[in-house]
Amino acid sequence: MNLRRGLTVLAVAFLGALAACGPSKDKSDPLTTREIKTSGDPEVSPQERFGSVTGNSLSNLFGSGDGEGQGGGGGGGIGVNAYLWRASLDTVSFMPLASADPFGGVIITDWYSPPDSPNERFKVNLYILGRQLRADGLRASVFRQQRAGDGSWQDASVEQKTATQLENAILTRARQMRIASLQ
């Protein structure tokens, strides 16, 4: 009988915790009221598209966001280098995002088919490894699939230089952002 009572209490506690994870009812919350921008709209800047993940709202919540005293532009609330984070989002802004974790430094895109080749699609995983703006602070993985004759997607090989070129493009953009912030 005690086991049954314990399981009931555990189930009620679990359901209560699950209910607390629901959407916010506060209409003044900017995350619940802001309009989600689509990644295909060329008129929308990455700052508008990704909202507080790259904007000042997150920085204002945890710190100044100017990168001063953060060991190479880490930002106040972001757990990784802010320049690498913003440059990564900027570089893959043409692809739809599946997940973006500024504290863990992981950006995962959804599959993207270029307009000129609808029978292949790409996906990118980016890992920002630290708070310093360094070449070894970023890892990129690029995945590619091709459409088979039956309409299903088949994994295809991607040359390692593709990921290296993507990393170099992000690092170049991050350096440009850092230089612009110092001027």
UniProtKB/TrEMBL annotation:
The keyword Repeat does not apply. The keyword Signal applies. Keywords: Signal. It comes from the Bacteria. Pfam families: DUF3576. Residues 23-50 are annotated as: Disordered. Residues 24-40 have a biased composition (Basic and acidic residues). Residues 1-19 form the signal peptide. InterPro entries: DUF3576. This is DUF3576 domain-containing protein. It comes from Ferruginivarius sediminum.
